[in-house]
Write a structure and sequence with these properties.
CATH topology: ABC transporter involved in vitamin B12 uptake, BtuC
Shape: globular
Strand order of the largest sheet: 1-4
Largest sheet: 2 strands, antiparallel
CATH architecture: Orthogonal Bundle
Number of strands: 4
CATH class: Mainly Alpha
Number of helices: 14
Strand content: under 5%
Structural class: mainly alpha
């Protein structure tokens, strides 16, 4: 008689349930939260830049790395692009912005791989490096938006903000890349055992550099939207951006030690933070209380992750222990 398949509760299911409960709870107290216009133009629009950068950050953390400089890469790209727009126009500004993101990502990757310095130390150093460059170039003054950035930050297509369409496209690309490609499997392998992956003939260094370059590119894309939405920025605008991105990735179940994680978890984590940010603001909750709520939700999610993982490990141990007995009885 065939064994019946038992329903398996995954961490992503629990995370999705947490998001639904939060959404229902906020909607029950503030009906305006259910307005499609509010959901698209406020809730999602306000989280897009963080959500975009969380996608490549997931890849980096899965392979055992981290990038603390993402916020300042974004601001440096916007700063150089904004200044270029004043002198050379919008087209040159777009090129300068994208090149800045690519070069910053390349610098991070090369230092980590070639100098063999840990990703945390490297990107902590470049975080301050990019911040200092932004401050020096802008001389502490505000940088103003240009035509392309304004279009990216304020335009809608079929009633949906352009940046939401861009985010959806990136979600599809990164989800397929991680779950369905050889590169995705290599990233997990690097995170679980980098030396074994290297001995298997995989060029780990090249993959690491590529991931940091991709992250820099997405930071540059996010800078267009950020600058367009706010019309002007200052050099310190990205100070806490990196921790918000990492919070989303960790909330989504990606292990900070590498080798474990999924893009679906990161997407749900983005929705949770977006719902909390907009929902608590609608409810007129003070900012200090909002911070406490964010921390509490993260703790609950991590506890749920630990419980699901420990149960899964116990089931595997039971199966392994039961296997020899079955062989002996044959």
């Amino acid at each position: 008689m065939a064994n019946k398949k038992k329903f398996k509760v995954t961490f992503n299911m629990l995370l999705f349930l947490i998001w639904i409960l939060i959404f229902i709870g906020i909607a029950a107290t503030s009906p305006v939260f259910l307005s499609p216009s509010y959901l698209l133009n406020v809730m999602l629009r306000n989280i897009i830049e963080i959500g975009m950068v969380a996608l490549p950050m997931t890849l980096i953390i899965i392979m055992g790395g981290i990038d603390l400089s993402v916020g300042n890469i974004m601001i440096l790209a916007a700063t150089l692009g904004g200044l270029a727009a004043v002198t050379y126009g919008s087209a040159v500004a777009v090129i300068v912005t994208i090149l800045t993101g690519l070069v910053c990502g390349l610098i991070n990757g090369l230092v980590i791989v070639k100098a063999k310095i840990s990703p945390m130390v490297t990107t902590l150093a470049t975080m301050y490096l990019y911040l200092g460059i932004s401050r020096g170039i802008s001389k502490g003054s505000s940088i103003y938006s240009f035509d392309f950035a304004t279009t990216m930050g304020t335009t809608s297509l079929f009633g949906i903000p352009v940046q939401v369409w861009i985010y959806v496209l990136l979600v599809v690309i990164f989800t397929v890349l991680l779950a369905k490609t050889t590169l995705g499997r290599k990233l997990y392998s690097i995170g679980l055992n980098e030396n074994a992956t290297q001995y298997a003939g995989i060029d780990v260094g090249k993959i690491k550099i590529a991931m940091y370059i991709i992250c820099g590119l997405i930071c540059a894309l996010a800078s267009f939207i950020w600058l367009g939405r706010f019309t002007s920025i200052k050099f310190d605008a990205g100070t806490n951006f990196n921790m918000k991105v990492i919070t989303i990735v960790v909330l989504g179940g990606t292990s900070i030690n590498g080798g474990i994680g999924s893009m679906i978890g990161t997407i749900i984590g983005t929705l949770i933070i977006a719902t909390l940010n907009s929902g608590l603001t609608v409810m007129n909750i003070p900012i200090d209380v909002q911070t406490i709520v964010h921390g509490s939700v993260l703790i609950v999610a991590l506890i749920a992750y630990a419980v699901v993982n420990s149960r899964a490990k116990k089931k595997k141990l039971i199966k392994i222990e039961a296997a020899p007995k079955q062989v002996a009885s044959m």
